[in-house]
Specification:
The complex is a heterotrimer.
Chain A lengths: L3 H17 L9 E2 L7 E8 L9 H16 L7 E8 L4 H14 L4 E3 L4 H14 L3 E2 L24 H15 L5 E6 L2 H14 L6 E7 L7 H9 L4 E5 L2 H13 L5 E4 L6 H8 L8 E4 L13 H13 L8 H20 L2 E2 L1 H8 L28 E8 L2 E4 L4 E2 L4
Parallel strand pairs in A: 1-11, 2-3, 2-4, 4-5, 6-7, 6-8, 8-9
Antiparallel strand pairs in A: 10-12, 12-13, 12-14
Chain B lengths: L8 H10 L13 H25 L8 H18 L4 H23 L4 H19 L5 H4 L5 E2 L13 H25 L1 H11 L1 H6 L4 H27 L1 E2 L7 H13 L4 H27 L9 H15 L3 H22 L5 H10 L2
Antiparallel strand pairs in B: 1-2
Chain C lengths: L1 H31 L6 H17 L4 H24 L7 H23 L23 H23 L1 H11 L1 H6 L4 H27 L6 H15 L4 H29 L9 H15 L14
Helix pairs in contact in C: 1-5, 1-8, 1-9, 1-10, 2-3, 2-4, 2-8, 2-9, 3-8, 5-6, 5-8, 6-8, 9-10, 10-11
The chains are: A alpha/beta, B mainly alpha, C mainly alpha.
Chain lengths: 407, 356, 301
């Protein structure tokens, strides 16, 4: 579709962008669908309705972000036309929305599309159409495969690796562990569970019980009771905030005090830890990569101050305690930076090239020590986490930042 | 029963076949995306027709058609994935499987009436995603991760795009199915079905084997929706339990009612509505937010709810029923005007009796 | 044994939740002959109103009473304004209106109060109330409140003239009109009462499952099953049905757990408990088509 001489040209432009690190002044302007002298169109899908509508918050904050970028003049003089559609967490709907965005609205790229099954449904399509599918909002491990899917890139540390990290930590720190696992019965849960099992390796037999729950279950009390009955002393909670809070509270209520490992998705103090009851969650361990907005140690950190000011000014309707808003801001900043680096060469190839071209980029709101790195063979932007333990009213980081190689 | 003028059907079919062929002339208007969208509308109208056969024409309410849709989709997906079967060959098998399940479900359903049947079908809709995730079936169904498929390829090297071919494939299936349904409904079986719907006890006394008709209708209805599911597996090229939640059943019901219960044309309209309503709700909500500058965030879901209520206000018998009533009203006005005098009561009675 | 007792208690506690919501469903059915799909969302909306009142400084019980009153008015309003013009519409069309109402309640709640889960306080004293380790104070409180509401409704319908008028209006509107019952207002009253009962249910439930716009989605399914297994026209049956469904569900999971423990084979577990429970419910219905306590209506041809 593109002429060969453009490819070399794009390579040259990218090289210049890399070297200068600033706006390319001399290059000729190159556009794919969705980019022009005045605007850049970005596509996005999010579940604003349906059972996963709690994630719709992310979409709203991202919308506010691009609005504030436009108010400040846009990127390299171009306004961002951010089109977000509601897919209700239903893969057929996602396919429809994405096709509309790509073929009708003709967006330059999509970013942060949410949901593992939803992204799976459009995975092949986006790569066939050669449209960048950037920074997908799911931690499944399959998004970093540049050889087979060169147009798709993940963002957050993948669930599989996180599971491995918890397994290794507990094997090293808990004496004679007997492990109970509560897992949400879907792709997100499965990914963590597979990683966890892999991390346990030969010790996988130490899992005394593995139970699941559905998001339509009103409570997980029954499951927690079953788990306690096995006499386990370790409890791995793979659940979204509401159910994680229920599980941890119930464990406390029935007098079960295991060592709790909590998945990152539910690490928000406001949406999971506090509702579970602060007494019940002391000592819970999770892996973090973003700053939690309720963590007082970051109150004076410049990144956090910028974020709080931005929230108050541009996104006042959303909660300052919800870690999803930190996530949304961070991933939007990464997208912002990617587009900025493209300069005047806003072809889809260049967008992918710039996305695959971050060397230890200091993305705001990432924990100190964690940076974004990508390359043509490494499509996992963030691969480091730091373990933290819940103490008092917030998370206390410990140990070192762990850099995991993606599987 | 058929409020749709028969003479329009053939020209519409011809148009349906010819218009996409004009694509090279107007690639932006007759775009691949639009063809895909129309294909999803066709699939939805087949699914709604299935539900209509059971609920509209036979009076058995079902909140469980998402189950049959899912079974059809997964049957087709598994056959394509594990046995490398060509996509068109999976249709009859999916239909057969769904027929059997529908028929089996229809048997105990004989004992249940109204709300209880609704609950039973509801339970079916809830259980199917669970069954799809069931541990012992994971190897077959792909569990929570689902099965990734390929879209149908254009056969015989015809100069069509993938989406054009998908559209024709769905269109041909739809015409066959609607023609079959029309034949059935116009014949003895159809009259028996509707008799059971309207006067179940009387139908029994007249010698109609109510039990047999009800279970067979259940089976056929399931088969229709199952075929729609199988088509959707090809169209979306992906199946996962998340695609078949029970809310899908509710959406089919909405499509049925908004289109027109007990009307074939209503099923088509229902299918179109089913696909369009989400898009329009989103567009409308964006319009309100961006163009009208209303501070309050009117989400697409709210607009959807308001739209439903407004539609039921204006056209309680569905769009087809509503349009029919309007047309009848216009005709009566015209007749009244030409005669010049006040409408004669005899004529009025005759006009009223024409309405089915 | 300990696990059995805990599962049983947890089942009863969950059952109380289902019973509460099922009561509201039956109320609407008894007054208007319709099953209100939006009942759960309306209850959730009422709970948010009470939460908001508490956020503005009211105490729990003041907010509770105000929210119940406001919900009552909301119910009457919905019946008079939205449903009145559709009295003669086909049943399915009214179902679609309910679904529209569901969508509106759900997304408005999300828009006004965001999707972040909120803690909801419990009015029941913490310790010494309940059997430690088996059933907590709040859950015991939910059971008690449900039974209290049920008794109040029973007394209302059985022994007050207004209750009698409402029952007459629902069962035989034409005859009721002839004896001077304002049938239209009876319907509105029924809706108001149902909304009020729903508010109570939501407020009771919120502490256990956390307040968020999607809190009632799963519960509504169980509430339907409960109402139907108990006999759709029977409030007492709905409550019993709720407890049955709650306990049954947990027992299915428990049995699956035991089977796996003893034999090591996984047959059924938490993923399948809803399915199995519903199969059992349907099986019961095929044996007793009008529910356990319902009355079979014999139709005259």
């Amino acid at each position: 579709m593109k002429k060969t001489n453009r490819r070399t040209f794009v390579a040259g432009v990218s090289a210049a962008t890399l070297l200068s690190g600033s706006r390319v002044a001399f290059a000729q302007k190159k556009y794919s669908d969705g980019a022009s002298d005045t605007e850049i169109k970005i596509g996005h899908t999010n579940p604003y309705s349906g059972p996963a509508s709690s994630y719709g918050v992310i979409g709203k904050t991202i919308q506010a972000y691009w609005k504030s970028v436009n108010e400040a003049g846009g990127i390299n003089g171009r306004k961002i036309n951010f089109i977000t559609l509601d897919d209700g967490y239903s893969p057929p709907k996602t396919v429809e929305c994405i096709r509309q965005l790509v073929e009708q609205d003709k967006v330059l790229c999509t970013f942060n599309t949410l949901g593992t099954p939803c992204n799976t449904a459009i995975h092949k399509y986006m790569n066939e159409k050669k449209v960048p599918m950037l920074y997908v909002a799911t931690g499944a491990s399959k998004w970093g495969d540049p050889k087979h899917f060169p147009w798709t890139m993940g963002f957050q540390p993948d669930y599989h690796t996180e599971g491995i990290i918890y397994a290794k930590h507990l094997l090293a720190n808990v004496k004679d562990p007997k492990i109970a696992v509560l897992m949400q019965n879907d792709d997100f849960g499965k990914d963590y569970w597979n990683g966890f099992k892999e991390g346990l390796g030969k010790e996988a037999g130490r899992v005394t019980k593995h139970v699941t729950y559905e998001t339509t279950d009103p409570t997980v009390d029954s499951q927690v009771i079953q788990l306690k009955d096995t006499g386990a002393n370790v409890f791995f909670v793979i659940a979204i905030p509401k159910f994680a809070a229920q599980a941890m509270r119930k464990a406390g209520d029935i007098g079960w005090k295991p060592a709790i490992y909590l998945n990152n998705v539910s690490s928000s103090v406001a949406s999971a830890m506090k509702p579970a009851g602060l007494d019940n969650v002391q000592g819970v361990i999770t892996a973090l990569y973003l700053m939690d907005p309720t963590d007082k140690q970051f109150d004076s950190h410049p990144d956090m101050k910028t974020w709080v000011d931005w929230m108050k000014k541009h996104n006042p309707d959303q909660s300052l305690q919800d870690a999803s808003n930190v996530f949304a801001y961070a991933v939007s900043t990464l997208m912002h930076e990617t587009l900025k680096k493209c300069g005047d060469d806003l072809t889809r190839e260049n967008v992918m090239k710039q996305a695959a071209n971050f060397q230890k980029y200091q993305l705001p709101l990432l924990l100190p020590g964690i940076t974004v790195s990508t390359s043509p063979t490494d499509f996992y932007p963030i691969q480091a986490v730091q373990l933290s333990r819940f103490k008092g009213e917030t998370w206390e980081l410990f140990g070192e930042v762990m850099h995991a190689e993606s599987t | 029963m058929s409020m749709f003028p028969k003479k329009w059907v053939l020209p519409l079919i011809v148009l349906a076949f010819v218009i996409p062929l004009l694509r090279p002339l107007m690639p932006d208007v007759i775009s691949n995306y639009r063809l895909f969208l129309v294909s999803t509308m066709i699939i939805a109208s087949i699914a709604v027709l299935g539900l209509n056969l059971l609920t509209g024409f036979n009076g058995q309410i079902s909140l469980g058609h998402s189950a049959f849709y899912a079974v059809g989709a997964y049957t087709s997906a598994i056959l394509m994935d594990k046995l490398d079967m060509p996509y068109y060959a999976t249709l009859p098998i999916a239909a057969a499987v769904c027929y059997v399940i529908g028929w089996l479900f229809g048997k105990p359903a004989l004992k249940l009436e109204g709300h209880y049947l609704a609950l039973a079908t509801f339970a079916l809709a809830l259980s199917v995603p669970q069954i799809l995730k069931y541990k012992w079936l994971e190897d077959l169904t792909g569990g929570v991760q689902g099965i990734v498929l390929s879209k149908p390829e254009v056969p015989f090297g015809l100069p069509l795009t993938d989406d054009q071919w998908l559209y024709y494939y769905c269109l041909i299936v739809m015409i066959i199915l609607y023609w079959a349904a029309n034949n059935m409904l116009n014949g003895r079986s159809g009259r028996a079905m509707m008799a059971i719907r309207d006067y179940a006890i009387a139908a029994d006394t007249m010698g109609i084997n109510t039990a047999r008709y009800k279970t067979v209708t259940f089976g056929i209805s399931a088969a229709y929706t199952g075929i729609a599911g199988a088509l959707s597996a090809s169209a979306i090229a992906f199946v996962a339990p998340d695609s078949f939640s029970f809310f899908l059943s509710i959406k089919f019901l909405i499509g049925l009612v908004v289109g027109g219960v007990g009307s074939l044309a209503g099923s088509v309209v229902g299918g179109i509505f089913y696909v369009l309503v989400d898009n329009s709700a989103q567009a409308l909500s964006l319009f309100v937010k961006n163009d009208l500058g209303v501070q309050f965030d009117l989400s697409a879901y709210t607009v959807f709810g308001i739209l439903l209520i407004a539609l039921m206000y204006m056209m309680p018998t569905g769009i087809v029923g509503g349009v029919y009533a309007i047309v009848q009203g216009l005709r009566r006005n015209r007749r009244g005007a030409t005669t010049g005098s006040a409408t004669s009561p005899v004529r009025d009675v005759a006009a009223n009796q024409q309405r089915p | 044994m300990e696990q059995f007792l805990q599962q049983l208690a947890s089942g009863l506690a969950n059952g109380a939740i289902y019973a509460c919501v099922a009561l509201a469903l039956v109320m609407i059915y008894v007054s208007t002959d319709h099953l209100n799909f939006a009942q759960g969302e309306m209850a959730m909306f009422s709970t948010y109103i009470s939460w908001q009142l508490m956020a503005w400084g009211c105490s729990f019980w003041v907010a509770f009473i105000l929210a119940v009153l406001i919900s009552f008015c909301m119910g009457v309003f919905i019946e008079r304004v939205i449903l009145r013009p559709l009295h003669h519409a086909p049943v399915l069309s009214i179902v679609v209106v309910f679904i529209g109402l569901l969508a509106i309640c759900n997304s408005m709640a999300g828009a006004i109060w965001s999707y972040l889960i909120k803690e909801y306080p419990s009015p029941f004293p913490k310790a010494d109330f309940g059997i430690a380790g088996v059933i907590g104070p709040h859950q015991l409180g939910v059971v008690i409140v449900t039974l209290v509401v049920l008794s109040l409704l029973f007394v209302f319908f059985r022994y007050t003239p207004l209750g009698l008028a409402m029952r007459a209006a629902a069962q035989n509107p034409q005859m009721a009109r002839l004896v001077g019952v304002r049938v239209d207002w009876m319907l509105a009253l029924g809706w108001g009462l149902a909304a009020a009962v729903g508010a109570v249910a939501g407020i009771m439930v919120a502490h256990i499952v956390y307040l968020d716009p999607n809190m009632m989605g799963g519960i509504l399914l169980y509430a339907f099953a409960s109402a139907l297994i108990g006999g759709i026209g029977n409030p007492g049956g709905a409550v019993v049905g709720g407890f049955i469904v709650g306990v049954l569900e947990n027992m299915v999971a428990y049995t699956g757990n035991m089977i796996e423990k003893i034999t090591g084979i996984y047959i059924i577990g938490n993923g399948e408990k809803l399915t199995v429970a519903l199969i059992i419910v349907i099986f019961v219905l095929t044996l007793k088509p009008a529910g356990l306590f319902g009355r079979v209506v014999v139709k005259r041809v």
